[in-house]
Amino acid sequence: MSPHAHAPADEWADHVVGSAMAAMETLAIHLGDRLGWYRALAESGPHTPASLATATGTNERYAREWLEHQAAAGMVTATDDAGIRRFALPPGAAEALTDGSSLAYAAPIARMVAAAATQMPALLEAYRDGGGVSWADLGDDARWAQAEVNRPWFDTMLAPALAAVPELDAILSRPGARIADIACGAGWSALALARAYPEARVTGVDVDEPSIAQARSNAAAAGLADRVEFLHEDAGSLEGPYDAAFVLEALHDMPQPVEVLEAIRGAVREDGAVVVMDEAVAEQPAGPGDDVERLMYGYSILVCLPDSMSATPSAATGTVMRPAVLRGYAADAGFADVTVLPIEDFAFFRFYRLHHPR
Hints:
Layout: H1 9-34, H2 37-44, H3 49-56, H4 60-72, E1 77-81, E2 84-88, H5 91-98, H6 107-118, H7 120-129, H8 135-163, H9 166-172, E3 178-182, H10 188-196, E4 201-205, H11 209-221, E5 228-231, E6 242-248, H12 257-267, E7 268-279, H13 291-308, H14 323-332, E8 337-340, E9 349-355
Parallel strand pairs: 3-4, 3-6, 4-5, 6-7
Antiparallel strand pairs: 1-2, 7-9, 8-9
Helix pairs in contact: 1-6, 2-5, 3-4, 6-8, 8-10
């Protein structure tokens, strides 16, 4: 929690030091994730520094320093037995840091922060001259972190969330329904839609070629390549009519959101459904904000706004796309209304349905 605005300087200094420690711990989480240290601790721990290094093909001296840091930060437990120090990962931490199927899986967040940190010189330049830093610039750490952190929610929660909205579920359940997933990334959302609605055909589109390649591989591995296709295109390539289209945590990144929504409106039947899932930020800004606001503004200054501004022209939306902003984009794209769907407790997200004119 930030100090009060009128707090003395030493309280603000303590706040800065605490923030710096949190940043260092985040990057240490990234090290443990990418080097396989957390996974080794979860699967074969407790470990000494030597055994952890051997199990993961890493350097013992670095492993020892990282383990001691993790113990100091409360991430691992340490025990001494006859002068031999062993380190263990508690079960809850193991789930959050290594179980990619768990809704608690959070390690990819550290990977995203690391991706942004490596681009700090480019971010500084962009902040000075108004340019940007694209997802392509951020690279695989950002690309796959985004895919991995959302995957368990798509795999586990998307189907029941949509089934709980009868009118939407009926549209998606139409025999031979065509569903579009715009900015589909690695394809986990499209595959979840295909599993939930086995009579539907799903088309995922994305402008990021590595993501589309991975999505096609994921579809083949899931045995769904016959019903799910992935196109390296943008929304303007959609050839309707579609029964439904989804934009899942992506609209705020798009340089031209109105044009994308116009293309979607033209491709989806008037009796179909257009659904946008985006961050569940507050209706109005407030300072200090809650944890969702703090997290989303963090993503915005480091990732989403620079990505959006890497293209010209750009709406420069940023991660914190408040409901009124989305409603404005929808109106400009020719939609008649926007309603919030009764889907709650879906990570940090809110679901909107955009309605065609009647």
